[in-house]
Amino acid sequence: MNISMNAVTRRTAMRRTLFLSGGLSLPLPITLRASGFEPFSFIVVSDTHLGRKDNDQAERQWRKTVADLARADGDLVIHLGDVVDGGREEQYAIYLEERAKIGKPVHEIPGNHDPPDLFARHIRPEIDTFLDHKGVRFVLLNNSRTDSHDGFFTESQLGWLDQLLTDAAESGLRILLCIHVPVHPNRHPDRGWFVKPEHGQEKFYEVLDAHHGQVAGVFHGHFHNGIRGWDDRAPAHEVCFPSALYNGKRNLMEQGAPGYNLEEFRPCFTRVTIGTDAIELVCHPIGESEPSESKLWKLVSQLK
Ligand SMILES: [Zn+2]
Fold this sequence. Notes:
By secondary structure, the protein is an alpha/beta fold. The chain contains seven helices and 13 strands. The strands form two sheets. A seven-stranded mixed β-sheet has the order 5-6-7-8-10-9-11.
């Protein structure tokens, strides 16, 4: 054991053992452990970047991903943004033609590579929206801009979010927020891309704090670093999901970065199971048609 390990807390050390297993189980707050709740699964896919580098590699990867998603078990699919790369408008038609083969409802949010006008034209006219499914309210919110890697909220978006959360509490719904760019600070050795204080970070957290215990997860794409997240706003976990096209390892855990980063950096989709007392995330590498148990990256232990 080297000297730096002495500074590692028990909780961090425990998490590090979990990284080796490649899956993750996020505890739900007790207030969200509704009696009579029926667990269900859905699929998260992100950062497909169709048209990247003006070749057809991302398109071929999306076809493979769609074949996997069609087979995968899950009620619906959430796409966390960067559908196409660099606003290549002609790629939306290719994306949609393949998407039709998934055979499940698919709900996207734009990323910084999806200009809002193109997203609205090809994917969904009403960009900020929500859907309720089996006791969970999915809030789909655009917080990216094409001219920045950072995230941004407007006053009216945060007001709308506050209203949605108030309404959801009255209806007894759990909340999952889907926004492309994380709000959580993540400076060096991490990407450094997040909603900066002057762009709505503090107000967002004020809304989150006002609804403490109601929000189970804040889900993002954008990072291409496998599953990477933070739980210091627990019970709300803030999680970046892997790209289905490419991911890189930034050695975050080795460098003592806060939060967690699963040791799986192949292109993946993620199966999310909302259980009665935990959210389970399982990475599925794309193209593994018959995933063995070891490739399911399944873990049922909890982080704390
Ligand atoms: Zn992005």
